[in-house]
Amino acid sequence: MSVVALKSRPAESPKPEAKVMALPAPPKSRLAIRRILSDIAGRVLPPAVVLVVLLAIWQVAFSGQTSGLPTPSTVWTESADLILDPFYVYGTQDIGLGWRVLTSLERVAYGFGLAAVVGVLVGAILGQSALMMRGFDPIFQVLRTVPPLAWLPISLAAFMDSRPSAIFVIFITAIWPIIINTAAGVRAIPQDYRNVAAVLRLNQIEFFWKIMVPSAAPYIFSGLRIGVGLSWLAIVAAEMLTGGVGIGFFIWDAWNSSRLTDIIVALVYIGITGFVLDRLVGWIGTVVSRGTAT
């Protein structure tokens, strides 16, 4: 009987395992830069496109010879010096629009700053008492509807000088929304916060800074944003009558000299400055209230 020897197959060598190679991730800094650029483009491009379209419509609509208003190209041709060099000084009255805006802003800083301090304090006091609020609110609602220029003759008679008169007009125009909004914010403070203040035995100053201001910040800064806008409107109107070197008097003087292109450039300066003031107060409110005031 023959014996057949069975040969075992040689052991197969293990196949190498397939490895998945991960693609190198882009640096975080590059992703952050792309995100920032995308955010900037999303904020800048839409208004830029709208501005270009409006300028094109303006150019086409008023390009006729019988048009009474200048086109954008005419404004650039005749008033390019005001745009390109806003801080020139050729004399006491012949200065750039940048200096005129700063002069007006100085008056706004005095008037609005005083209105902010007084308005917040008075509003905080009135907000603590429903009886006082009912007594003063009708008076405030009547006074806040008085146009800014209506206060100018009274301020000129009281101060006998154009500079403090303009500051007073700013103050009396801006203070009402600050008082009303602050009082509303104080009255909206939850009762639980007041109970905590009573348990901790906070005095009036501590209650004001630790409870009242953080809780009423959205209302307070809403009033401040309205007030700063009214202040900028008031100073431009007041300077048209009181004179000086402010941006308001420049517009009136340009009108008397039939320089319409200069007026248009000044209006752009006024609008941009008002926009910056509003955003600045809003940013301060966001920082103070930690994002609750927008």
Automatic annotation (TrEMBL):
InterPro entries (alphabetical): MetI-like, MetI-like_sf, NtrB
Localisation: Cell inner membrane; Cell membrane
One function term, GO molecular function aspect: nitrate transmembrane transporter activity
Main location: membrane
Similarity annotation: Belongs to the binding-protein-dependent transport system permease family.
PANTHER family reported in the protein's UniProt record: ALKANE SULFONATE ABC TRANSPORTER-RELATED, MEMBRANE SUBUNIT, NITRATE IMPORT PERMEASE PROTEIN NRTB
Reported function: Probably part of an ABC transporter complex. Probably responsible for the translocation of the substrate across the membrane.
Protein name, as recorded: Nitrate ABC transporter permease
